[in-house]
Amino acid sequence: GENVEQHPSTLSVQEGDSAVIKCTYSDSASNYFPWYKQELGKRPQLIIDIRSNVGEKKDQRIAVTLNKTAKHFSLHITETQPEDSAVYFCAARIHSSGGGADGLTFGKGTHLIIQP
Amino acid sequence: DVKVTQSSRYLVKRTGEKVFLECVQDMDHENMFWYRQDPGLGLRLIYFSYDVKMKEKGDIPEGYSVSREKKERFSLILESASTNQTSMYLCASSSPPREQFFGPGTRLTVL
Q1: For residue B91, how far is the Cα from the chain centroid?
Q2: Which pLDDT does position A101 carry in this prediction?
Q3: How far apart are CA B34 and CA B102, in angstroms?
Q4: pLDDT in tens, B67-91
Q5: Which residues in chain B have their CB less than 8 angstroms from residue A90's CB?
Q6: Mutate which of B33, B46, B100 to test chain A, going by most A C-beta atoms within 10 A?
């Protein structure tokens, strides 16, 4: 099955600096890569996702890049703010257009700490 | 607004007990999922379902079973709870190609 590796496990950055979290996946058939943010005591919530037919996607201060050849994808957060402090999870999935469902395979998470 | 609810936020059970965790979604989603979340291990898929009465094993199905008798409800069953099943359990639902929406989680402690 799919295996997703995520690094680093903890990332501390100064407020206003950028943060980058990297993930690699093993199954070349994976074609959907979401990123979830989980604040302390709350449920994971999707912040951005990318499909394999796209190399980069941006939403305000958040961007995700995908390198299919190398099988890795990254989350970039610019101008970090205190409310960005959370655990971030990357995930991969093989999406079947013919129906059915496939669960996500998650990385182990990155605890992002924004230092004031 | 999508709503996924779980029957309990906190649950304490004894070893050997049968445990039911319930999940309900109100958006007519076809797909439902059960994950467990442990520190340092991320979220791991236990079981999922893409239709009523259909179920598929995830990455760690051992010790668990599921039931989906109605589209909106997906139950996770621990036939005989063990201490290594102490964890946070998260339910999710989706309607492809949209993303998965998670419930608030049930923190289960098995003594």
Answers
A1: 4
A2: 59
A3: 10
A4: 999 999 999 999 999 999 999 999 9
A5: none
A6: B100
